TrEMBL record:
SUPFAM superfamilies: Acyl-CoA N-acyltransferases (Nat)
InterPro entries: Acyl_CoA_acyltransferase, GNAT_dom, Ribosomal_N-acetyltransferase
Organism expressing this protein natively: Demequina litorisediminis
Name of one Pfam family that matches: Acetyltransf_3
PANTHER family: RIBOSOMAL-PROTEIN-SERINE ACETYLTRANSFERASE
Name of the protein: N-acetyltransferase domain-containing protein
Residues in N-acetyltransferase domain copies: 1-108
PROSITE patterns: GNAT
Amino acid sequence: MERKRDGKVLGDVALFLSGNGRTAEVGFTLHPWARGHHYATEATARLVDYAVFDLGVHRIEASTHPHNIASVRVLERIGFLAEGIRREAYWVEDEVSDDAIYGLLAREWMSRRDQD
Ligand SMILES: CC(C)(COP(=O)(O)OP(=O)(O)OC[C@H]1O[C@@H](n2cnc3c(N)ncnc32)[C@H](O)[C@@H]1OP(=O)(O)O)[C@@H](O)C(=O)NCCC(=O)NCCS
């Protein structure tokens, strides 16, 4: 992610394709100083647009720690729906936590775009 006005690198947003390009997962991270401006929401929405309209992806997923409120809000603002919790599925070194799963279908994204 680069800021348009000065080209400064803010962080990264990634798309991982699977299922012969029909499904994908998104992930995002901002530098701490770049948080609080909805940059991740804007960049991830652009990437979803690209995935749906240019690549023809049918379903996009994301997973996050259930207590990661900023990440959950980014996903909810874009239109991802909470689909469930994978219990004790995410390990960081010796610590395990639940993993919240979010999903967005191409038709949901298209109908959201039509409403804007
Ligand atoms: C997740 C991340 C990219 C979001 O950054 P961001 O786009 O700048 O998000 P913002 O700071 O604008 O916050 C998004 C929303 O969460 C809310 N929020 C953030 N921290 C919050 C907190 N501690 N309590 C309540 N709400 C909070 C904001 O108010 C905002 O709400 P809004 O959309 O209703 O206005 C950033 O926090 C980050 O890089 N975190 C570390 C890496 C990470 O967790 N990545 C995701 C892994 S799945």
